[in-house]
Amino acid sequence: LPIPAFQVLARSNNWPAQKVLLALVLHMGKNSNCVFPSYGTIAKSVGIGRNSISKGLTVLYEFGFIKIARFPQGKQWRSKYYLQPSCWNSGRMNGKASHMRTKTAVCLDCGELMDRGGYGTGPNGAVHWGCGGKVIRSRR
Fold this sequence. Notes:
Layout: H1 4-11, H2 15-26, E1 34-35, H3 39-46, H4 50-62, E2 66-73, E3 76-83, H5 95-98, E4 105-107, E5 113-114, E6 119-122, E7 125-128, E8 135-137
Antiparallel strand pairs: 1-3, 2-3, 4-5, 4-8, 6-7
Helix pairs in contact: 1-2, 2-4
C-alpha cells in the first residue's frame, strides 16, 4: 500500500502491525478516523491471532499511528482506535517512525534532510514545509 505508515512498518519488519493497520483501515468510515473492531473481527479480516493483534496494536501506538481509548460497555471494556494523521503524512510522524523513512531531499536554507512528507511542490519547484526554503531531491 502506498501509505507512509505501511511502508514504515514494512521497513521495520513489523508484519503483525502491518496487518492490524490494514484491518483498521478496512473498518474506517467515510467521515471518521475512529474504528472499534473487536479482536475477533480483526483476526477474521487479516488472519492473525490474538497475541499478534496485541503486539501489532502496541507497535502502532509506539510509532504514533493510533491512539487508543477504552470505554465501558455493560460489564466489559471496549477499545476505540483513532488513526492519526501520521499514517498518511510522514511529516507528522514521531521520531521512532520517521527514523525508518528514507531521506530523499535536503533543504538548501536550513539543511534539513527529509522524506517526501517534509516538502511540497509549487510553481518554483519543491518547497520545505518547515522553513519555506528551496528543496533539492537526491538521485537515489
